[in-house]
Design a protein that fits this description.
Helices cover 18% and strands 31% of the residues. It has 712 residues and is α+β, with helices and mostly antiparallel strands.
Length: 712
């Protein structure tokens, strides 16, 4: 079915949903609309604060990919944004040169990811790397004379000169690709991660001289060199420990400070450290700057005056959801610590997600989750005073970047009703206002009836409260009874925010004719660290009780049809669907995506062991079988009765596909109506546009069968 035909059929289906009244000038959102939206990311403000460069992604359904190009917006808003690059591939990760004249970015236009430079005053982008293993995440040195980037290489070649090591890497990759034998050999854990086999590669940092501007001409040696050789990753392998660019040049430009993966036991340790090497380093022994902290440290960022370093740190080894505190430490021009790190956010009962230095380095602006939205805090590094709330209620704010003076901060901004757009804010603004610079989706948004979410507080069994979003369908009539779609988030240490999701978009669910509820039970972030901690070792306990209290709250609403309630979730949310299966018959159907079914088999097949160990008493199963079995859905199989849709993917190495197979086998053996959808080319998420389109259609068709939409 082509896109136009699919849109027409979906529109007719929506028109036929009972109780959904279509307004004259607005219409309900369709599945197709989700792929018509432009996808904005990674806004970066220029040093002088006059421009913001950002990435705009466009879904190409015919090619089953998202095309990405760079765009440029003036911060004064006097001229409309303009497209800076034109490719049918992917241009991303733009970074300004210190003088603001050039933009460094990565692109797949040559086939694999390589680095390019484009000048602000015009001209074509120039490719500056041809490294066989690809180049990504590039940054400039403070003086603009060097560039550093990441490349995943075979460590056995990393101590050799670049030309030799590059040829050896290329040869080995070609041999693997062309060999009729596809066997893989593993001698340690972390041989696969998220959705890819690592194949013994390590992510290393490379440094190269920055090429001159096009108009200046000149020849020179712009050959990169591996400055983190050895059998260790110099860049986070887990997104849990990523912060900002994850590495930076020292103020004098002679060293790199970076987030390094644990030197030992990387599959079950969270001891990420900040390390330092010179830009001429040849040693496999890296200087560790945070050796006194056995938990995670990440995200180094120097103050504009080069006198302070900020980074995030946790206190509890092995606990990835521990509170992230913002640390600062005085440094020398080389980036070496010149004192003891101090936490600036010890008194803030929230994790710091993002941060940016303001002006001369006396203050920082912090991005934190707070009550299911983003709050911005200001903290004075010089006086080390307690963080002060600067503003909240924006929706979701991410990707902070500041100009040289710290007078202007660029960010991405989204709500549940609008995808991300580029915005700017002024830290000195007494009104605490945020100004949108991009409006790429305004035309489509004006067509759609996107209801506003309502935030409610649900009393819990132990006297606390749980925040929950309620989203009513377009054309909602309070005098009718409506079906419920109860969505449980993943994590479990995560939250439903007033933000936009391309994978689980509440607006497109509501548009099918459902009241959508998005609860934030125990384990959810942004409601204090104790609330986060209380899910560890208790997945089927207080969190389940909170969710059932949420259902009770909804059942008391006069417009909810208690005979048409469905629940869905992914990852931990999928686990909870499996737990629901054995512990409640409230729902007419359950939808579980890439879930955990058997805690013991999950531990033995997942990639990041530290997570499973911490959330089951801090030990592997053979030392504490009872902790793994206590809340394992497979132990409740005799109670399974509810029709269930299972989605699980072959490349999901976080919650491996065997979990889905076990669940489906059990349901089929019990005679419970069930369906298993398997994507062999997807990982923990469904990212390819065509697959995502199919995913949505299958889910909504299943819902329609067991929990019909619309008001009655």
């Amino acid at each position: 079915m082509n896109r136009c035909a699919a849109w027409t059929v979906m529109s007719l289906l929506l028109l036929c949903i009972p109780g959904v009244a279509m307004s004259a000038d607005k219409r309900s959102m369709t599945i197709d609309d989700l792929f018509r939206f432009k996808r904005i990311s990674d806004p970066q403000i220029s040093p002088d604060g006059k421009w913001v460069v950002y990435v705009v992604g466009t879904v190409d359904m015919d090619r089953n990919m998202i095309v990405q190009n760079l765009w440029l917006a003036a911060t004064d808003g006097k001229t409309p944004p303009r497209q800076l690059t034109t490719t049918d591939r992917q241009d991303r990760h733009p970074r300004w040169s210190p003088d603001g004249k050039r933009i460094l970015f990565e692109s797949t236009r040559s086939g694999e990811s390589q680095l390019y430079i484009i000048e602000l005053d015009g001209g074509e982008a120039r490719q500056i790397t041809t490294i066989a293993t690809g180049a990504s995440n590039a940054i400039w040195s403070p003086d603009g004379k060097h560039i550093a980037f990441v490349s995943a290489v075979y460590p056995e070649f990393s101590e050799k000169p670049y030309k030799e090591s590059n040829e050896l890497n290329k040869k080995k990759m070609e041999e693997i690709k062309n060999s009729p034998v596809k066997a893989r050999i593993f001698t340690r854990l972390f041989y696969r991660h998220w959705d890819s086999y690592v194949e013994d590669k390590r992510q290393h940092l490379f440094v190269m001289p920055a090429p001159p501007e096009t108009r200046s001409g000149g020849e020179g040696n712009y050959e990169p060199r591996d400055v983190t050789p050895g059998d260790r990753d110099a860049y986070p392998t887990s997104s849990t420990f990523e912060t900002g660019d994850n590495f930076t040049f020292s103020p004098d430009g002679k060293y790199l400070i970076f987030t390094a993966v644990p030197k030992e036991n990387e599959a079950w340790s969270t001891n990420y450290d900040l390390c330092r090497v010179s830009i001429d380093n040849r040693s496999t022994d890296w200087e560790c700057l945070t050796k006194d902290n056995p938990a995670a440290d990440s995200g180094p960022m120097f103050s504009p005056d080069g006198k302070m370093l900020a980074y995030r740190a946790q206190k509890k080894p092995g606990y990835e959801a521990d509170k992230w505190e913002l640390m600062v430490v005085p440094v020398s021009p080389s980036g070496a610590f010149d004192g003891k790190p101090v936490s600036l956010t010890a008194s803030l009962d929230r994790s710091v997600d993002g941060y940016v230095w303001l002006g001369n380095g006396k203050a920082l602006l912090l991005e934190v989750e707070q009550d299911a939205k983003t709050a911005l805090y200001r903290v004075e590094a010089a006086t080390r005073s307690a963080p002060m709330e600067w503003a909240t209620g924006f929706g979701t704010v991410q990707s902070l970047s500041a100009n040289r003076e710290g007078s202007l901060v660029a960010c991405s901004h989204a709500t549940m009703r609008r995808p991300p757009e580029v915005a700017v804010l002024r830290p000195a603004d007494p009104q605490k206002s945020l100004t949108l610079l991009s409006h790429v989706n305004d035309g489509l948004l004006q067509e759609l009836d996107l209801p506003a979410p309502e935030s409610v507080r649900v009393p819990t069994a132990d006297g606390k409260t749980m925040q929950m979003w309620i989203l009513k369908p377009p054309g909602f009539d309070p005098n009718k009874k409506w079906p419920l779609a109860y969505l449980v988030h993943g994590g479990p240490q995560s939250a439903w925010l007033d933000g936009w999701s391309w994978r689980w978009c509440p607006e497109v669910w509501a548009a099918q004719g459902y009241v959508v509820a998005l609860p934030n039970p125990r384990g959810s972030t942004g409601f204090g660290q104790q609330f986060v901690d209380e899910i560890s070792g208790d997945w089927g306990g207080k969190c389940f009780e909170d969710l059932m209290k949420g259902v009770e709250y909804l059942e008391r609403l006069p417009y909810i049809d208690k005979d048409r309630m469905a629940a869905a979730g992914a990852s931990f949310g999928g686990y909870m669907m499996n737990w629901f299966q054995g512990n409640t018959t409230k729902f007419k159907t359950l939808i579980t995506h890439c879930s955990v079914y058997n805690n013991e088999s999950m531990y033995a097949t997942t990639d990041e062991l530290w997570f499973d160990e911490w959330d089951h008493g801090g030990k592997p199963p053979w030392e504490n079988f009872e902790a793994y079995r206590k809340h394992s859905p497979h132990t409740k199989a005799k109670n399974f009765k509810t029709p269930m849709l299972i989605i699980h993917n072959d490349l999901d190495f976080r919650c491996p596909v065997s979990e889905g197979h076990q669940l489906f086998t059990t349901l089929q053996r019990l005679g419970v109506p069930s369906k298993f959808i398997n994507f062999p080319d997807e990982g923990h998420w469904v990212l390819k546009p065509k697959n995502s389109e199919f995913w949505h259609k299958e889910i909504f068709a299943w819902l329609k069968k067991y929990c019909p939409p619309g008001g009655k």
